Amino acid sequence: MSTYLLCLVLFCIGLYGLLRKRNLVKIIVGLAIMGYSVNLFFVLLGYRLHGRAPIDAPDQVIENMVDPLPQAVVLTSIVIGLGVMALLISLAIRIYEKHGTLDITKIRKLKG
Amino acid sequence: MLKANIIPLFVIIPLLSAFLISLLGKYLKRQFIYVFSNISCFLLLYFSFYGLNMLRSCGSNIFVYKIGGWAPPFGICLVFDGLAGFMLVIVNLIAFIVNIYSLNYIEKYTDKPKFFTLVFLMLTGMNGLIVTGDLFNLYIFLEVASLSSYALVAFGTDSEDLEASFKYAIMGSLASIFVFLGIAILYGFTSTLNMADMAMIIAEKTGSRIIPFVSVLFIVGFGTKAALMPVHAWLPDAHPAAPASISAMLSGVLIKTLGIYALARILFNVIGISSAISSILVFLGALSLSVAVLLAFAQTDLKRLLAYSSISQVGYIILGIGLATPLGILGALFHLFNHSAIKSLLFLNAGAIDYAAGTRDLREMSGLKEKMPVTANTSLAASLSVAGIPPFAGFFSKLIIIFACIEKGYIGYAFIAVIGSILTLATFMKMQKLAFFGKLNEKYNYLKEVPLAMKLSMVVLAVICVCGGLLLLPRWNFFLSDAANVLLEGSHYAVKVFEAVK
């Protein structure tokens, strides 16, 4: 249970970064932390303490199995997260080239 | 089983086109890329109609394709039913028309192969999301479509485009994180990712507190993608910033596929909608449709006005779906169809004005009807349709939604819907008056009507706007009612999927 709570703490740290920071890069880092906290939560859902991989060989007794599906799913999710991150950072670089600053209060033109 | 073999084509064709165009685009002539992209779009449109026709003729009303031959609870399956066919026809129809429009419009951008690559990737994501029968696969296609749309919004690389795209990307990724969290919790609860299998397990385990929590996560996640009112802030920036043909795709089909279709599919067919969730949806729909139209009225930038109006019209659709009655869902799906044609057309008109006159500011343009008759007349048809003037399609869909509200006893919501419709009329009359009527502005004396391909696509969409009401006739009625029945039968969807793979 406490591990799940730690995931929640990590999620809130990411949300704080996303909502309160003014620097574009820090906003991106906040988003990344939120993504990883959810990934961690998903992996922990399938984890059992002292568990092992569910490979069924003859003359083996498996007592504690780790569910492999969340791990496969999270691996895909991390790759997607990488794609989003690359796009966001390239956008931030282009914005920096245009304005010479990363502060969102100074580059803000659009409203609503 | 052979009939199901067309389903993967909806993902394969656009993905292969994107791959080939990005790989060979530099070495080929421009005209070849144009022809190639239009052929792939036409093939997609043909297969959507072909699938829908096959669904009607063979009477089983669902096809399931097993990827790699693995049966559903273990492998990923692709499902083609009435609702998926309905959405595929809309998405591919708009994509085909927008692609024709792009032939001329894209001239002002430098990198044409990359543009078409991104469009086809977005189409892959949308088509895949519609046909998939696996919850995690849905998330992947959601991200494919979203990522390419973030890049397309920034395609012009002006500072406003970049800022709008950044805002959109942050809010969109946050929404995806909520969706992913919802999927993780549902997996922990049911230990399966297959939508049909999950629906069966959830139907057995009643009375859990997890289900309302997950429903709210999905409403927040998909609601952000659909730009429901409290989380709409990205849309009025992102849709005007994109190139006009992309704005038409984003407003016409992307918010509906990623937001409304995914939400409706999961809430109705997998989780099962409760009265509390349904009343939340109705409230959010009414809020969006009433507040956004007021904001739209105040705009002077043509594309921002259209973007706010999109939020308002999405409110109507969510209102109808939230009612969860047969009439409400029918009206919502009909309005979804009408709005995708109408709003694509209006954005294409805005693009045509931008192409010819080089402005988006309503105060600068005046009397353009004289110089651009095709644009003005098609825009008038779309405006009258979205405002709900009787012979046009938009009138019937709004009328059905308002009747559905009254039928369920929500007189107040019906009243809000009527007021929203009147304000929409006011907004579009203002837009028409400022842009097309009145005296021609001196500096636009040199204007010419836009090239043939742009005119052609606008006229085709205008015909759809005008004739859309014919879908209510008994002969064509199946298109809407088959789609509505899929949502209405709820978790019986699971039984049908498992029967189809036997």
Task: Please describe what this structure looks like.
The complex is a heterodimer of chains A (112) and B (502). Chain A is built from four helices and no strands. Chain A is an all-alpha fold and 112 residues long. In chain A, helix 1 packs antiparallel against helix 2 (24-46) and helix 2 runs antiparallel to helix 3. Chain A is elongated and about 65 Å long. By secondary structure, chain B is mainly alpha-helical. Chain B is 74% helix and 2% strand. Chain B has helices at 9-24, 30-58, 82-105, 112-131, 135-153, 159-190, 195-204, 210-226, 235-241, 244-271, 275-297, 302-323, 326-357, 373-387, 393-407, 411-435, 452-467, 478-488, 492-501; strands spanning 62-66, 77-81. In chain B, helix 10 (244-271) packs antiparallel against helix 13. Chain B is globular, with a radius of gyration of 22 Å. The A-B interface holds A 18, 24, 27, 31, 34-35, 38, 41-42, 45, 67, 69-70, 73, 76-77, 80, 83-84, 87-88, 91-92, 94-95, 98-99, 107-110, 112 and B 136, 139-140, 143, 147, 150-151, 154, 157, 159-160, 162-167, 169-170, 173-174, 176-177, 180-181, 184, 187-188, 191, 193, 233, 236-237, 295, 304.
Can you give me a brief rundown of this structure?
Chain A has helices spanning 2-20, 24-46, 68-99, 104-107. With 112 residues, chain A is mainly alpha-helical. The model of chain B has no long low-confidence stretch (mean pLDDT 90).
Question: Which key terms come to mind for this protein?
Answer:
heterodimer, A: 112 residues, mainly alpha, Helix Hairpins, 4 helices, B: mainly alpha, two-stranded antiparallel ribbon
Question: How are the secondary structure elements laid out?
Answer:
The complex is a heterodimer of chains A (112) and B (502).
Chain A: H1 2-20, H2 24-46, H3 68-99, H4 104-107
Helix pairs in contact in A: 1-2, 2-3
Chain B: H1 9-24, H2 30-58, E1 62-66, E2 77-81, H3 82-105, H4 112-131, H5 135-153, H6 159-190, H7 195-204, H8 210-226, H9 235-241, H10 244-271, H11 275-297, H12 302-323, H13 326-357, H14 373-387, H15 393-407, H16 411-435, H17 452-467, H18 478-488, H19 492-501
Antiparallel strand pairs in B: 1-2
